[in-house]
Amino acid sequence: MPPDRSLPEELRDCRHPGAGAGSELVLVEGISAARAVDLVRHKAWQAVLPLQGKPPNVLRSSPRTVEASPRLLAVIQALGIGSLRAGPSHRDQYARADRARYDRVILLFDPNPDGIHTQALTLLFFATFLRPLLRDGHVYAARPPRFGLTTSNGERPRFARTEAERDQMVARHGHGVDVDTYQGIASMNPPDLAHLCLDPATRILGRLGIEHAEAAERSFIASERRR
């Protein structure tokens, strides 16, 4: 079967997309992260799309401006929701959850300041132009660890998502603890990436809602005022 020309070239699609199929679109920051996820994803129902850099701030953007961004246009195309140019009064018909190609969108960004910033910008995009997906509970954030800890006595590795968690684990085990700081998703061991970020039985996801987008919007507006 020839490739679907309406889908972005960088999308690694799943075999069974479609609303109601339990499918997921995993958004990551770049090609290296996409390759790492591609190795361990469930190819039947998990697709992965790299954003390849930070998306623009869309707080004051028009649909035409958004679709001129290759990063955001790729998300729109992967979701299969059509054009945004019908205008604000018609956006809901393009972003309805039952018309999207996936049941869930998972934001899986690096656990560092750049990743946090990218997630906030992506969240603003969903809140402004794909609001029904966010409103109806179809957008989630994965929580990859920032640190991996191994002990000299051969215990299974432990993982920390914050510096406070890391410090508590180190204090609990005393000396003989090696700490690895993950520079990004691509630096994680494939089994750990699968276990902690992709396997529904063991990963930690947080559902994102309108309130999270509003908090991100307030933060960006306050930052602009300080300039």
Question: Could you characterize what this model shows?
Answer:
- With 227 residues, this protein is an alpha/beta fold.
- It has helices spanning 31-40, 63-67, 70-79, 91-95, 113-129, 131-135, 163-173, 190-198, 210-226, and strands spanning 24-28, 46-50, 104-107, 139-142, 147-151, 158-160, 177-181, 205-207.
- A five-stranded mixed beta sheet has the order 2-1-3-4-8, with helices on both faces. Strands 6-5-7 form a three-stranded antiparallel beta sheet, covered by helices on one side.
- β5 and β6 (158-160) form a beta hairpin.
- α1 (31-40) crosses α8 and α5 (113-129) crosses α9 (210-226).
- The protein is globular.
- It starts with 23 loop residues before the first strand and ends with a helix.
- The model is unreliable at 87-93 (pLDDT under 50).
How do you describe this structure in short?
This protein is α/β, with parallel strands linked by helices. The chain has nine helices and eight strands.
List the helices and strands and how they pair.
Blueprint: E1 24-28, H1 31-40, E2 46-50, H2 63-67, H3 70-79, H4 91-95, E3 104-107, H5 113-129, H6 131-135, E4 139-142, E5 147-151, E6 158-160, H7 163-173, E7 177-181, H8 190-198, E8 205-207, H9 210-226
Order of strands, main sheet, comes to 2-1-3-4-8
Mean pLDDT: 86
How many angstroms does the end-to-end distance come to?
52 Å
Low-confidence stretches: 87-93
Helical residue percent band? 25-40%
What is Rg?
Answer: 19 Å
